[in-house]
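Changelog-linked ticket: coenzyme A example.
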Amino acid sequence: MNRLLPAPTARLRFREMTPADLDDMAALLGDPEVMTFYPAPKTRDESVEWIERMQERYAIDGHGLWLVETHGGEFVGDCGITWQSYNETPVREIGYHVRRGLQGRGLATEAALACLELVRDEFAPTLLTAIIHPDNTASRRVAEHLGMTHIADDHAHPWIVRTVMGVTVEPQPSN
Ligand SMILES: CC(C)(COP(=O)(O)OP(=O)(O)OC[C@H]1O[C@@H](n2cnc3c(N)ncnc32)[C@H](O)[C@@H]1OP(=O)(O)O)[C@@H](O)C(=O)NCCC(=O)NCCS
């Protein structure tokens, strides 16, 4: 599988996460505030599994959640594209987590826009989704900045009805 990577942005660059990122990823995924809309913050062992799962996704799908850092190498979080499903329909989904100290500066939107452009280059025309906890307003705002609108409700989740945001990503018009 061709391993993909979004282009760098004004403030951010992407790379595949590795076991050497465990301290940063465990701090991110273990932060109760970042994980408000998950069942619980992740333990260090669960963060090990998270990194392993992403490494499998890079190898099998060519994409996953990538590690996001500043051009100076400061850890920001993760952002990328994974296969998910809603109402049993498989879809590509964009995901993002930004560490608490760097939230509110437009970094998730900036990273997500780079991922959208990668989807456009590689897969368009295609549906891109963000499957969101109904109370996760920040995540919904990022999705709206990508041009997504509320396209469905996911009833396949065991205990919440999730909001499915989506946009059809069209190919770049050729000149
Ligand atoms: C969602 C998340 C990645 C956004 O990161 P960020 O870098 O702060 O995002 P941005 O600065 O690009 O934009 C955030 C938007 O949400 C809004 N926002 C932030 N916190 C908010 C809150 N508590 N309530 C309402 N809106 C909020 C901001 O005002 C901004 O909207 P605007 O551009 O219209 O003003 C970050 O909040 C996060 O890591 N959350 C926890 C992880 C998560 O839930 N991820 C999504 C599920 S995969």
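Closing comment: Example verified and attached. Residues 12-169 form a domain with the Aminopeptidase fold (CATH 3.40.630.30). Strands lie at 12-15, 65-70, 75-86, 89-98, 126-132, 149-154, 162-169.
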